[in-house]
Amino acid sequence: MAHSVGHSRQREPRPRMEGCAMAIARTPQNPNSSIQQDEPLLRRGKLVRPGEGISIWWMGDDRITFGAVSEDTGGEYAFWVDYPPAGTGPPRHVHSREEEGFFLLRGKLELKAGGLHTTVGDGAFFAAPRGVPHEWRNVGDDRAELLTFTTPGGNEGFFLEMGAPGGEPPSEHGTLPIQEINARSPRYGVTYLESGSDPSAGLLQSGAGRGPTLQLADEGERWYAAGATYNIKAAGLATAAGYTAVEITLEPGGGMPAHRHARYEEAFYVMEGTATALVDGDAYEASAGTLLLVPWGIHHRVRNHTDHIVRLFNLTVPGGIEEYYRCACRPLPGPGGDPDGDLNRLMVVGRKFGIDVDPDEGPPA
Fold first, then answer.
1. Nearest CA-CA partner of 100 in 218, 239, 214
2. CB 308 within 8 A of CB 273
3. Taking Cα atoms as reference points, which of 52, 105, 63, 124 lies closest to residue 271?
4. What share of the chain is helix, strand, coil (3-state, %, to 5)?
5. Helix (H) or strand (E) holding 83
6. What is the pTM of this model?
7. Which of 79, 261, 267, 291 is the S-S candidate for 315 at Cβ 3.0 to 4.6 Å?
């Protein structure tokens, strides 16, 4: 069972505008206005512990566990963990609506997307743009463990509709003809394709001029503040502003200060160690395999109170938060850390990005 965190609030009715034929939408000049005014929230945070979530068997023996579906995220994204057996993987396919991303926790995958054809191992991040055909296959000897997400959400319904309940034992691996899959997939914005040698076959107009993003375990753009290293795996520029994916490493005693977003939906998946999370006043110990969902406007903090590092996979929707890291953080941790100075920069710069950092929380300890 997943745990809801935070406190429910009721939204006040908005006043009607009499005598107006049409309301004109305008971008607010102050991106912080919604959190400064404490605009009521209808959604709450969610903590999904290891082993929880919605599980299915895909094609008989591929276990998929959904930690976040569209209902949890206001339709902004879906997030799941896939455990494909050796020798399995999805046929070549293309999404017409979703940006899709993968982080390989464990295993060995053969990837094909656009002109990319390679094999990757633990710690690789792979982004498949909307409109670009792609496929992957587990070429290792054991089950792989693969984080997967799509933004916006909705595509998870395809798997939930066609998969078998996860509470039942697995069955033998099966396949379906592509024609049969495509008879049921249009409502989910995905089309399955026949394999071929032409990497551009099936390319949609929305994918023209775009290509996949691949970052191996030691690659990425790194920024540092207050005991936390932010390794940007996919920035908004590469994802058509769909999302930003970051690997966050918290050193012992380090962490992210208490803050809330006026705009970003956020998810944290604990890959290593045990983090202490504070969400809307409630504290949680989040061990490896835990997923934490934080809607916009919810006050939250993540820290490492242990003697070992904590590694998190962090997804923010929409993309763009990497510009905050670039402006508020240091390129690399230098000698003689300055946690108070780091916190001050995070707070001051955050105002420009609709991020409200609590100055009373102090630096991580």
1. 239
2. yes
3. 105
4. 15, 35, 50
5. strand 78-83
6. 0.88
7. 267
Instruction: Please give the backbone phi and psi of residue 131, each rounded to the nearest 5 degrees, phi first.
Output: 90, -5
Contact criterion met (CB below 8 Å) for 99 and 240 = yes
Nearest-CA neighbor of 316 among 217, 262, 242?
Answer: 242
String of DSSP letters for 104-131: EEES-EEEEETTEEEEE-TT-EEEE-TT
Please state, in angstroms and rounded to a whole number, the distance separating the CA atoms of residues 319 and 278. Answer: 24
Do the bridges between strand 282-286 and strand 255-261 make them parallel or antiparallel, or are there none, so unpaired? Answer: unpaired
Distance, in Å, from the CA atom of 163 to the CA atom of 157, rounded to the nearest integer, reads: 10
Residues in the chain: 365
For residue range 34-58, list pLDDT tens digits in order: 444 444 456 788 999 998 999 999 9
Q: What one-letter code names the amino acid at 337?
A: G
Q: Whose CA is closest to 244, among 273, 210, 277, 221? A: 221
- Tell me if 41 sits within 8 A of 297, measured CB to CB: yes
Coil/strand/helix, residue 7:
coil
Spatial separation of the C-alpha atoms in residues 53 and 64, rounded to whole Å: 10
Phi, psi of 48 (to 5 degrees): -115, 110
DSSP assignment letter at 359: G
Report the alpha-carbon distance of residue 363 to residue 227 in Å, rounded: 9
The 10s digit of each residue's pLDDT in 78-127 is: 999 999 999 999 999 999 999 999 999 999 999 999 889 999 999 999 99
334: closest CA among 236, 221, 224?
A: 224
Sheet bearing 228-234, strands edge to edge: 3-5, 45-48, 291-294, 265-272, 310-317, 244-250, 228-234, 221-225
* DSSP for residue 330: B
DSSP assignment string, 194-228: ---S-TTTT--GGGTT---EEE-TT-SEEEEETTE
* pLDDT at residue 76 in the model: 96
